[in-house]
Amino acid sequence: xxxxxxxxxxxxxxxxxxxxxxxxxxxxxxxxxxxxxxxxxxxxxxxxxxxxxxxxxxxxxxxxxxxxxxxxxxxxxxxxxxxxxxxxxxxxxxxxxxxxxxxxxxxxxxxxxxxxxxxxxxxxxxxxxxxxxxxxxxxxxxxxxxxxxxxxxxxxxxxxxxxxxxxxxxxxxxxxxxxxxxxxxxxxxxxxxxxxxxxxxxxxxxxxxxxxxxxxxxxxxxxxxxxxxxxxxxxxxxxxxxxxxxxxxxxxxxxxxxxxxxxxxxxxxxxxxxxxxxxxxxxxxxxxxxxxxxxxxxxxxxxxxxxxxxxxxxxxxxxxxxxxxxxxxxxxxxxxxxxxxxxxxxxxxxxxxx
Length: 354
What we know:
The protein is α/β, with parallel strands linked by helices. The chain folds into three domains: 47 residues; 184 residues, 3-Layer(aba) Sandwich (Rossmann fold); 104 residues, Rossmann fold, CATH 3.40.50. It is built from ten helices and 13 strands. The longest helix is centred in the N-terminal third of the chain and has 30 residues.
């Protein structure tokens, strides 16, 4: 599965060459035409009122994106829920729960570990989840995780995240690229957060801002980073990030943007000797664990095993192949020494209306 995902990523990014790769990309492009038509018609139906959005009597804050996975919604959702809890509001998180067919998915487990006092409801029908949160949990405000394309549930604030390292998903709609809908869909947003701005140049951020200004001139834009906070393990122990400096590391992850995680390790001073990626929301089975244990034993004795917190909460083990396993815990912060005041103001505007 991991190799298939790597092949697909290399294919759509143009890293695969030859007649077969060209043929496959052409087929994916043709499929994206049908997908795009369906998306445009669906959005038009909501815009014209042919399809109705259902509103609940409490505020809804949506966090979403234009591309599939990898923009860093989980730290943003955590920040929003924590901000609202500090105002002593009863908050509930609603999500589709991709990868949760056999239980809670990785995002839910991370949020539950970091926000134990915020319930997280998962299911395909977010309208029904909202009613459950309202009636059974007495929630006062809802955070809709990955909700930009879920237009059935009306929202009071639409926040869209764009990964600065790949904001437009290779520039094509699914399955030729990673765009869930055309770029102009960003016009529905009330606020755009550029994530991972520390992993690109200042010129790249400026170019992205210019693109957004042309697409949605009135859209407020905030530059953010995913700030590593510390290292954690399954025993809920923590270690300082300085442990990674000049440290030989073998990293792995099952997230939407594995390259970004590798860059994070390198920026923390780690010497990444080996790296493996799995599909986004990958649910590790016994075969995967055995494979990782064998892989870990192949590394030198001083090598540290490091993954993301999303991987750690699914593996729930202290060691792999007799090597300690650590995860990098991250949080949302503003880029360039600024603050998240713009985000706070939008959140307060919604919550103060209660």
